[in-house]
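Q: My labmate handed me this sequence with no annotations at all. I'd like to see what the chain might look like in three dimensions before we decide whether it's worth expressing. Could you predict it?
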Amino acid sequence: MPTIDRRTFLKLMGLSATVSGAGLLSACDNKSAPVTASVTETANISDDFYDLPMSGNVRILHTTDFHGQLQPVYFREPNVNLGVGDALGRPPHLVGNKLLKAMNLNAGTAESYAYTYLDFENAAAKYGKMGGFPQMKTLLDRLRKQAGGQQNTITLDGGDLWQGSGTSLWTRGVDMVEASNILGIDVMVGHWEFTYRENEVLSNVSLFKGDFIGQNVRIKEDSLMDENYSTLVEQFDGRGMYDEDEGYAFQPYVIKEINGAKICIVGQAFPRTGNANPPEFFPDWSFGLREDDMIELVEMIREEEKPDAIVLLSHNGMDVDIKMAERVPGLNAVFGGHTHDGVPRPISVKNIEGHDCWVTNAGSNGKFLGVMDFDIADGKVKGMKYNMLPILADELPADQEMQAYIDQMRSTVYDKNIIESRVKEKYFNESRLGKTYAEILDEKLAIADRVLYRRGNFMGTWDQVLCNALREEYSADIAMSAGVRWGTTTLKGDWITMEDVMTQCALTYGETYVSEMTGHDLLNILEQVADNLFDPDPYLQSGGDMVRVGGMDYTIDPNKPLYERITDARLDNGHLIEADKTYKVAGWAQVNRTPDGRLMWDVVHDYIVRNKGKDNVLKLPKINHPKLVNVVSNPGIADYPGEAT
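A: Here is what I predict for the chain of 645 residues:
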């Protein structure tokens, strides 16, 4: 087939929960401002479920962590989300009924389905899938109209937009950029966006019609003097070299004039991108929390720009955002992402100047839309009101323009020239040649024998499928899979499709591997990952979940210090893991090196097809749930399927 360039390819692809609670919430940066108080509880979806008249004169609309999901999905919320230190018992570390009680919501409602795991199968059957770009576009347009027009609104995206699906992988995120332009996203930050090559990131930023910002993404000192990097950024009109003197790769903030008010949005990319993802993808950029720089930047903005409000668009994770909001003066609100926390009400914190700031997080996979209205007058925030709206796909008609774009994009033929021009040659799979993206992704592999989910601090059923596939591929004793929080849910009795597999595996370093590892090294890895998750200081956490381990059981006490949390690690056959014994360990998504094994989605595809029964059902005989110790009093755990004390 003929070679096709980028531009030709693009042409071819052609609950309303009103915040309340005077004790929890107050208007940000203005102690005398009014506090809005009510949470709508809905058992049946009313005609006015999505009616939200403007309260004030500026409306900020917030989405985050779509992870490549253009179409409606099922996504089960966690039954384990443990908080430690100051986060113990504080949202988002509440699950199930404890979360509902804290948010004044009832079980058995649409809100319960959206925010918790409770009665998930029955609720999913009743309320259907959630999210979807066509449905989100319909709701955004409605809320913009209710605000008096799009000119009175700003639409923010908190990152992890371009990664997480087969089509985003094959198009190198272009499908999501084009869709976000139709959606009307004005400003965004990044994390998994940086796991494409630098030239692909810069190309996507140039294609994006909004502002791509991040005060904590810097050009490395050597790269500032590198002619190759200068040549690269020149190809994209200087993007990637926003400020050579300060070393900013992208603009650190943006000012928007909205309905007579001056709103500043400061960007914060995921600070640990440099060690959580392979540095080979971004050799010229560095990342970090850079709190001191944030404080200095906000102070400069206050003095020189004199905005009416300053908000942080963040991919820190909610616990980190709460700490940063306490320590950075001048922020009115934080619109957060990364940790996929669907929290109906913002957390109000006081900064070091004694002013209040609201910290929010809008979940993931397009399940929610955060809406914050500001009443601004005389250069001050007089009042604020926040709503989190669940996106129930069956209750929102699909936007025709968006749906047409998605349908056309998915009708693109999987072509060798297109794939190899964007991805490593090994990604090309000849068996898919000549099929459309939709035909590939719609392939039915097996029927799920239970709900397959991934979200939660410890082992999920989808994680077990991945680990089983790795162990079988390499005849390994143990398999390890990263505790990432993306990956949609498959219902019991539904067909597992190739699209389901790709939502678990679609990333740019999906190669698998097998290695020999001593028991000592294996347990050290588990300890170090646990410390990233359960260190009491949020600034030392990575924001993910515990590494998933197949073929092995262990006991963990999250409250213990580093190297004391993991005990009684045993193989499935009951044999104790011995420190000086060597084990065969399989895995994927290596950060520090690129292995040579087959791609994870092909490994998982073949495992599912080989292991389904005559009735087409894939059965999971065992789930490697670790035993949890000293957690039963923690409100971040409920209905744990393993042993917990």
